[in-house]
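Repro:
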Amino acid sequence: MSSSTILRVIIVAVSSDAAKAIGNAVKNAGFSVKGKMAASLNVLEAELQKQPWDVVLAAEQLPESMVLSQIVDMTNQHQANTPVIVVSQDADENIRYEALMAAARDAVSINHPKLMGLVLKPEQQAAAPVDEVADEVVGEVSGEEVIAVADDAENEDRPQEDTPKHDVPVVVPVGPESLLPEESQWFERIQKALENDRFFCAYQPIVNLNAEPASNYELLLRMLDDDGKEIPPGAFLGTAEKTGLITDIDRWVIKHAIKTIKTKLEEDASTRFFIKLSTCTLQDSKLIRWLSEQLHAAQLPEARLVFEITADAASQNEQRVKTLISAIRMNKCLVCLDRVSDTESHKRLAVALGVDCLKISGQLIHELASNKDHQHSVDSIARYAKANNIFTIAQFVQDPSSLAFLWQKGINYIQGYYLQRPESVLNYKFEQEEEEVEMPAL
């Protein structure tokens, strides 16, 4: 008997034969399969409520009463970080795009077990190897066939640490009735600002230290009061995050960024915008579909938008973030891991997610010129990123000594008040600064 990893799955298909074919494909990819078939939304919901699952596999041909977006939405509702993957005969780019538009994790071909194995690999599972199990139908539960159930009671009593561990939400929005009086006032002001389009973005340059031509800006949110005066983000973002309004704000920023950069690209084709995504937005089950629609309609040139996700938020929502990154890449945009510290978990995450660049935590840049511990951490991150072909950005740079150290350590980009404070217009002279930052010598 060979050994393999148990993969606990729900297979959504029109018939037991179709489900068995998918079960066999997963088995050929190196897994033992234990799970249920669902031919209706009612059965799918019932199974999602019973226990955690590693993955929901949706056949390319679904039962007449079901569509892929319904499967994704129901899975997100009950198990927010359980991926939904489409299994097709030939997972070409069209099928993959349709899958991502429905906010599924990906699409994979039933005929390519090696690729299937890579896509289905359960990142959070710590199951010990088990004896290979048969993939035939062995019984029925609630009218639905059980696919490849383990063949003895011992597997049913597997220790708790072998149960797949799913990401837990870190933000649970509260309703207005749960707010303090001052928070309620801010809640109403934010709603009015959204209704009356009283937000704007400030732009802070991100400068390349190797004199490569590129006009990079991070978008930083600002709000206006009833009299048109600027309100700093620290005053309202806490309430926005607590109530979930930050999701609507993030969407406003994305739409604004797309509109603005399309105009800016007409005069400077190298323009690139960095856009922050909040933790609450990452947990929005409708984000991927909405974002894909916005980006697909915009038809921007490649790599003009970079979406920033904090390392802590990504680590607590890893499966969902992987799905989001797939959608972002399908739409020719980039991903940046923000607030990265010198920890093994953050480094592993950067590689596991396959991000394009990372931003070093601002805490490490503070007093960098005189703090040996911070210097060691920045150097460690820089070397790790370079070894894995990931670009680095140092934020909150405020003095020339820190800039010189960062340049010597091979940091690719810098951002901070030393270059420019956030401005309401895109007016930074990148060509002039590129000549200046090339001067520090090793």
